[in-house]
Automatic annotation (TrEMBL):
<dbReference type="Pfam" id="PF25601">
    <property type="entry name" value="AAA_lid_14"/>
</dbReference>
<dbReference type="Pfam" id="PF02954">
    <property type="entry name" value="HTH_8"/>
</dbReference>
<keyword id="KW-0805">Transcription regulation</keyword>
<dbReference type="Pfam" id="PF00072">
    <property type="entry name" value="Response_reg"/>
</dbReference>
<dbReference type="InterPro" id="IPR027417">
    <property type="entry name" value="P-loop_NTPase"/>
</dbReference>
<feature type="domain" description="Response regulatory">
    <location>
        <begin position="1"/>
        <end position="92"/>
    </location>
</feature>
<protein>
    <recommendedName>
        <fullName>DNA-binding transcriptional regulator NtrC</fullName>
    </recommendedName>
</protein>
<dbReference type="InterPro" id="IPR009057">
    <property type="entry name" value="Homeodomain-like_sf"/>
</dbReference>
<dbReference type="InterPro" id="IPR003593">
    <property type="entry name" value="AAA+_ATPase"/>
</dbReference>
<dbReference type="InterPro" id="IPR025943">
    <property type="entry name" value="Sigma_54_int_dom_ATP-bd_2"/>
</dbReference>
<dbReference type="InterPro" id="IPR001789">
    <property type="entry name" value="Sig_transdc_resp-reg_receiver"/>
</dbReference>
<keyword id="KW-0804">Transcription</keyword>
<keyword id="KW-0238">DNA-binding</keyword>
<dbReference type="Pfam" id="PF00158">
    <property type="entry name" value="Sigma54_activat"/>
</dbReference>
<keyword id="KW-0067">ATP-binding</keyword>
<keyword id="KW-0597">Phosphoprotein</keyword>
<dbReference type="InterPro" id="IPR002197">
    <property type="entry name" value="HTH_Fis"/>
</dbReference>
Length: 445
């Protein structure tokens, strides 16, 4: 390994031109010249060369300028020499961003994909491994938020501790506090024993708060207090329990919107959003699709499913698809292909068929979703109209029963026996209903 020093920008560039060096440690003041402003030449020649900037000009401006150059680390003087040595060691390990990605995969963490967008995510993960900063992972459903949280834990300095995930959307609102903070015996009806909550279970490790946007207000207040004080008390408990837990939260909701609507505490948002990581949707990183698809084909084999390979055309079709359900949708589709396709080779036609069948299901879902929206709107109107003799239930039923009867009669060509059969009700009941609503069946012919 070559180690050299120099005192001017000219000497620096001449030395680096030899290509013998793996790392540059530079001062900001190099003689009369500026060690940062002149880095463009260095970076143009070797974009992956790790650079460590040291400076006596301890201003925010210098720190910002250093980070803008993509410097691996910045040390204001005076600095701890051991710390510098440690950072040099780290900087030398992953020589390129490609290797960083490899490390994440080699460590048995199935974070697949080397698109530039994922490289940014990996770089960010790498910066979070030796500290306990709170992380907020943002991204659409199925983009891999939980996987990233696990990676931060498993690769980081808390790896010997537990990784405890909890999904706010999956727990009934009134149980969330007890789930998170634990409870003492008799704290509420049904609390026959005392129990530790997720916070206590995560001691020494990481607590992953998934779908944090769904956390009810009262639990938010308690969480904020816990984060501010570093202590919790169980529901119904008296003593305080000291916490040693890293918090990683995730959401697919727009936080600013939630705050505006008064559904999320702004102060809590700033507490958890110390370092945001945004996971890009899969449709914006199509170059990751082949690696992901092959990864899931291998995964399927490891789970005892038959071995299949995608043809080039099949793979291209997958890459062109706009994955609204992101990686989860791709994973499900690959598994579906593996179990349904007869041939070992997965052709373009096989892929197309499965994509189309998924979309027809989706179409049904949308029609139903639209229907529910309309139902909600009708109920809203009925509720607003309070001065009515009949109950809301009766009025709502009338609203839906009438068009149903008219439609079935129309389909039955006005034939009441047929209509009653179609509806699966007695003919007399149908006749009674038609009289009630004043529907004339002859009009339906
Ligand atoms: N980069 C990736 N490499 C390999 N597998 C991935 C990747 N991203 C996501 N997956 C897989 O896709 C599925 C969905 O990922 P995950 O549950 O982490 O998404 P999520 O963003 O947390 O979703 P949600 O918001 O719905 O909870 C998982 O099976 C996960 O293992």
């Amino acid at each position: 390994m070559a180690v050299d020093s120099c005192k001017s920008v000219g000497d620096r560039d001449a030395l680096l031109a030899s290509g013998k060096y793996d790392l540059l440690v530079t001062d900001v003041g190099l003689g009369e010249e500026d060690g940062i402003a002149t880095l463009d030449v260095v970076k143009a020649r070797d974009p992956d060369l790790p650079i460590i900037v040291i400076s006596a000009q301890n201003t925010l401006n210098t720190a910002v300028r250093a980070s803008e150059t993509g410097a691996f680390e910045y040390f204001p003087k005076p600095f701890d020499l051991d710390e510098l040595v440690e950072v040099v060691r780290q900087a030398m390990k992953p020589r390129s961003s490609e290797l960083q990605a490899e490390n994440l995969e080699e460590d048995n963490l199935p974070l697949v994909g080397r698109s530039p967008a994922m490289q940014d995510v990996y770089r960010m993960i790498a910066r979070l491994l030796r500290n306990d900063l709170s992380v907020l992972i943002l991204g659409e459903s199925g983009t891999g938020k939980e996987l990233v949280a696990e990676a931060i834990h498993t690769l980081g300095h808390r790896k010997a501790g537990p990784f405890i995930p909890i999904n706010m959307a999956a727990i009934p609102t009134d149980l969330i506090e007890a789930e998170l903070f634990g409870h003492e015996k008799g704290a509420f009806t049904g609390a026959v024993n005392s129990a530790a909550g997720k916070f206590e279970q995560a001691q020494g490790g990481t607590l992953f708060l998934d779908e944090i946007g769904d956390m009810p207000m009262h639990a938010q207040t308690r969480l904020l207090r816990a984060l501010q004080s570093g202590e919790i008390n169980r529901v119904g408990g008296k003593g305080l329990i000291k916490l040693d837990v890293r918090i990683i939260a995730a959401t697919n909701q727009d936080f600013l919107n939630l705050i505006e609507q008064g559904k999320f505490r702004e102060d809590l948002y700033y507490r958890i959003n110390v370092v945001p990581i945004e996971l890009p949707p899969l449709r914006d990183r199509a170059s990751d699709v082949p690696a992901l698809a092959n990864h899931f084909l291998n995964l399927a084999v490891s789970e005892g499913l038959p071995k299949k390979v995608l043809t080039n055309e099949g793979m291209e079709l997958l890459s062109r698809h706009s994955w609204r359900g992101n990686v989860r949708e791709l994973k499900n589709l690959i598994y579906r292909l593996v179990v349904t396709a007869r041939e070992e080779e997965l052709s373009e036609t096989a892929v197309r068929q499965i994509i189309q069948s998924e979309h027809s299901d989706e179409h049904d879902d949308h029609t139903l979703a639209g229907f529910s929206d309309r139902v909600r709107a009708v109920i809203g109107d009925l509720m607003a109209d309070k001065d009515q003799a009949n109950s809301l239930y009766v009025r709502a039923l009338e609203k839906f029963e009438r068009p149903m009867l008219e439609e079935v009669l129309r389909k039955a060509n006005g034939n009441q026996i047929k209509a009653a059969n179609m509806l699966g009700i007695n003919r007399n009941t149908l006749r009674k209903k038609l009289t009630e609503y004043g529907i004339d069946p002859s009009q339906s012919r």
